[in-house]
Design a protein that fits this description.
Helix 7 links the parallel strand 9 and strand 10. About 50% of the residues are buried. The radius of gyration is 26 Å and the shape is globular. Helix 6 packs parallel to helix 7 and helix 9 crosses helix 10. The chain has about 550 residues and is of the alpha/beta class. The longest helix has 17 residues. It has 17 helices and 24 strands.
């Protein structure tokens, strides 16, 4: 819950219990509010009158500012429909201002020319400040996305590690040069080192607002770049607050600019801007292709990383340690975040000999999940992000059923006996009788829905797993370590798990095959993508060279 505070006299606004952030850039009676988090019970004690939802501006040059055309968007709570906040919505003019400011910041070296160890210390400070406020970030993430608070409390505890890992990695070894051995090494030396790119345009989705923004910002800054971040209008608030925290930690003004806005107005302007040296996007495959086309349309030949759709397969063999353990793992893989993650388990491939027991146990477990208020720690399934997404998921499930799939549980909107809130809820759904041609197998259903198909042989399992245009995440459940290695090597997925799912670490590369995108996040691979090489060859001999005077002079 977000409130205003000035001179010790905060006013409250209605909402759920939690901690709240004071507004910046708003004056009340000539007093500028203190920018910090405020316990809600203090606010309630001070006033019982309802305040309007807080307003967030764009983040440009280290301060909040309004959009040039005055555009404003609402950020609504997907569980209740209540407005959490309003936010300035950037247009082309704002993006241009942001990029030019970030370009100036890169050129003058206020960040790019700092020693890597100095940048590392700032990023460690960012991590420290984040840890102090994770509870507040978790509450706000739940309010703007509808994902369960329990999930965010668990997930966000890892987020500071990205700043620490990339800061330390860049400082310790990222900028170490190389001395490649040359064929003519007796009289030449070749020095190779890495340098930052410049302004990086980052576009992030609504399902993991803070995590995905952090994954991109941390390595971009560690590499010495400046960034312009376009978070989603549906859930931009934690990204805007993160920008304030970066400033507090010591990141200079102009190095990080944040411009929430629509894709056509802000996103397209960002990816086509001539001063943007790299574009990094996470989202749907259709949008990823549009970005690539938009860049090509203006003749941009720049690095582009895209983490796109998923539709992850999970292969459950008959030699699992226990069917119950596999069921619990699949339930987590498919239904955490209401199935709204890029690596959610969607296509569950089960060996024929254990399918009956597996399905019975899975249906019982999923049918018992608690659907409702995501702020309650006992809730298992929160809402989808928007009504549009709800209608899309319902349409896909209905189409799958019309094509022959059978909904063993779910497959509908929840009644009031299961969920009394008015938000964008859909019952967790398990579909069976699903063939590879069925919508539930061929398309990624970005919601709480999994499909079950059976196989008899290892070869059939691999063939079904790879029968998709996507290849981001995938998992195998088996007690046979030889089989695990063998099958994992043949599955066309960039991120694989055995007997687990959703495990993620800043040191582990993240990215997919096929229509799941190009490039990699995390690990040293990410640092390489946010830098490039410079090569310097030095002639060390004093022997004179004269190409046009010596017919035997060397060329290469």
């Amino acid at each position: 819950q977000i409130v205003r505070e000035a001179s010790g006299s905060p006013t409250s606004c209605p909402g759920r219990p939690g901690r709240v952030r004071a507004m910046a850039g708003v004056t009340m009676g000539g007093v500028r509010p203190v920018v910090r988090w405020v316990p809600l019970h203090f606010a309630r004690a001070a006033s019982s009158s309802a305040a309007p939802p807080p307003h967030f501006g764009l983040w440009l040059e280290g301060r909040r500012t309004e959009a040039a055309d005055g555009a404003v968007a609402k950020v609504d709570n997907p569980a209740t429909g209540a407005t959490v906040a309003t936010v300035a919505s950037a247009g082309a003019a704002d993006v241009d201002t942001a990029v030019r400011g970030a370009h100036a910041a890169f050129q003058d070296g206020r960040w790019s020319e700092l020693p890597p160890r100095t940048r590392c210390r700032v990023l460690f400070k960012v991590a420290e400040l984040l840890r102090q406020r994770l509870g507040e970030f978790a509450t706000l993430e739940t309010q703007q996305t509808g994902r369960c608070l329990r999930e965010y409390k668990a997930q966000l505890g890892r987020v500071p590690e990205w700043f620490e890992y990339h800061g330390a990695s860049a400082a310790s070894q990222g900028f170490e040069g190389k001395l490649p051995p040359l064929a003519d090494g007796a009289d030449h030396v070749n020095l190779v080192w890495r340098v930052p790119l410049g302004v990086c345009g980052l576009i992030t989705p609504w399902n993991h607002p803070l995590l995905i923004a952090t994954k991109k910002i941390s390595v971009a800054l560690a590499a010495g770049n400046t960034v312009v971040l376009k978070p989603p209008l549906e859930a931009p608030l934690t990204c805007l607050i993160l920008a304030e925290l970066l400033k507090e930690a010591g990141v200079p003004d102009g190095v990080v600019q944040v411009v929430p806005g629509t894709g056509p107005a802000a996103g397209e302007s960002l990816v086509q801007h001539p001063m943007v040296e790299r574009v990094d996007f996470t989202g749907g495959t259709v949008t990823g292709l549009r970005i690539a086309k938009a860049m090509a349309d203006v003749g941009k030949v720049k690095p582009y990383c895209a983490e796109l759709g998923g539709n992850a397969p999970i292969v459950v063999f008959d030699d699992v340690a226990s069917v119950e353990e596999a069921v619990n793992g699949v339930a987590f893989a498919g239904f955490v975040a209401s199935g709204q993650t890029c690596v959610s388990g969607k296509r569950i491939l089960v060996h024929k000999s254990i399918k009956a027991e597996f399905v019975e146990r899975l249906v019982a477990k999923i049918g018992g999940l608690q659907v409702g208020d995501p702020m309650l720690l006992e809730t298992d399934i929160g809402p989808l992000i928007s009504r549009g997404q709800l209608l899309r998921v319902r349409g896909q499930v209905d189409k799958a059923v019309s094509e022959g799939a059978v909904a063993l549980t779910g497959g509908r909107l929840p009644g009031p006996e299961r969920c009394a809130l008015p938000g964008h809820f859909y019952e967790p759904t398990v579909l069976t009788n699903v063939t590879p041609e069925n919508t539930a197998f061929a398309e990624e259903i970005f919601g709480p829905c999994v499909s079950i198909s059976e196989f008899e042989t290892e070869e059939q399992a691999i063939e079904l797993a790879n029968k998709s245009r996507y290849g981001l995440g995938g998992a195998i459940w088996t007690a046979n370590v030889r089989r695990a290695h063998r099958v994992a090597r043949r599955m066309r997925c960039g991120v694989m798990w055995v007997n687990c799912h959703h495990r993620n670490d800043p040191s582990s590369p993240w990215g997919g095959f096929g229509d799941s995108g190009i490039g990699r996040e995390n690990g040293p691979q990410a640092f390489e993508e946010f830098t490039t090489t410079q090569s310097l060859t030095i002639r060390t001999t004093d022997v004179a060279e004269n190409w046009f005077g010596d017919r035997n002079a060397r060329y290469g």
